[in-house]
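Trying the structure run again after the queue cleared.
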Amino acid sequence: MCGIAGFVAQNSGHCDRQMLRRMIEMVNYRGPDASGIHVAGPVGLAHARLSIIDIGGGHQPMHNEDESVWITFNGEIFNYVELREELLKKGHRFQTQSDTEVIIHLYEEKGEDCVHDLNGQWAFAIWDSKRERLFLSRDRLGVRPLFYATPSEGFAFASEIKSLLTVPSISREIDLAALDEIFTFWVTVPPRTIFKGVSELPPGHSLFLEQGHVRIQPYWTLDYNPSIGLQREEEARETLLELLLDATRIRLRSDVPVGAYLSGGLDSTVIAALVKKLGTTHLKTFSVAFEDKEFDESSFQNEASEFLKTDHEGVLCSSEDIGRVFPDVVWHTEKPVLRTAPAPLFLLSKLVREQGYKVVLTGEGSDEVLGGYDIFKEAKIRRFWAKYPESKLRPILLRRLYPYLKSMQSQPDAYLRAFFHVRKDDLSSPFFSHLPRWDMTSKLKMFFSRESRELMKSCNAMGRLDAELPSRFRQWDNFSQSQYLEAAHLLPGYILSSQGDRMAMAHSVEGRFPFLDYRVVEFASRLSPQLKMKVLNEKYLLKAAVGDLIPRSIRHRHKQPYRSPDSQSFLRGGTTGGKKGVLHEYAEELMSPRAISQAGIFDPERVSKLVEKARAGEVIGVKDNMAFVGILSTQIVVDRFIKNFPKERMT
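Done. Tokens:
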């Protein structure tokens, strides 16, 4: 995996090589093995390389034979071997063994339609000098990031926002509308980002810059149509296993060793099992364990490792560890987050790199694609509860649904009825499944300052998301609608970004995701919802497909989502014996009334009360924990990206 950046000067001006160098140096951790810059008049392309395929010959930016086509590429094309053979038969000649050169020749052959042939994860920019056209593309599911901006001098793009912020005329200003979206959905809705003037290319989209004009168009989108798919369980089970095996096989292609994450859950265990089934004798696996037993899954990790006979290594994560690295975590997420969950993954990728690995396979995407989230089950229960409002079983089912949430178990039935209530208009809402989550998150907006709330009055996060829904969305069944909201927004905007690409690449590690092979995704979209979730048995077909490849206990264990300690991570010394805890020094400073007032986003008095609750160890609910983490991470963004952005990178 790599980092890319580029610039096209306006009115045929000259691209500033030094500016381009600053842009790519800002993300040198994405590609510490080599770097390269190509400048030709108004156009400049830059690259920071993490060498995985064709280590000696894959240097970038790369060009074709007559140097009319140049590319800077972040990602992997897993079917590059097959594509290369087809292109050779058509007369193309290769100078390297890299997947990068395959994209160049495929572009020569098919132009912008080349993306339809690619099976991989990518963000690339191609400069076609004959057409004087810049062509950007991002992979179907949004595994790899790509941002752009249109400053007065021209057009800029990069793997990460911080590269764009080195361009002097791009302002470093928080977009309150984006913050409103994060404090509703946990993510921004592309193209919006947390910074005004910086846009995100949505997954499955291409961008074209010609004669100063920008054109963006989709080339792929999620679609659900179970009526045309395989409905026979046995046939579907066999096909799913075949697809997953091949998706895993091609993701093992690498000129460096490939490891795997092993969380102790179903998905990562399945991937590790498939690697072993494909004949890999030695597999190195990695995991996070927690000192706090509420979050720890190490017993399942060890069981899976012993069953699959992997060489296992884990990092033991404490609350203190999370608090210590959190500012660096936010530097890499480049946006506020509402949970500390990215921090342990930041520490995990550090371990992976220290063990000499650059590539890991993980189980991300399975829940979104094959129906694994509790929110899908919760929606089923709520719909049934709306039909039978006096049912005494619904509160019991909801408690069983969230056994890992201690606060949920102690709440009276009346509370659960109120929290999971279904209003008259909810059943017809396209967002039915997500309304409780978004309603709870939106309550965090009470911490915004009066000025922020006034400016946000015109923001309509729900309305904007509604406008972005596909035209066929309302024709899909309820389950598919829920899946889309997770797969199209939370997956690329948070799971694959804040918890995925950013945490792995912070330590120069590439993640690969067999469940997100587009063939698996398209197959799953044609499955009946009943094959994904049978009654309340999540990922039913996956469990049936893998059978005895994994331990029975892991196949049948209750799903426990990945979580980590939140507000308590920022306390030193604890709160035992009636003694109040002490915040980490940076948290104490950034959450102080003075710092809150200076930033102007949050209300100092309300934040101070929340901080006091945290010091006293009284922040125990989900809402208060999300508020604390969300406010602190926003303050870190303000501090590191606006007040104290590295000035040496801008001169």
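The longest strand covers residues 69-77. Worth checking whether this holds up in the mutant runs.
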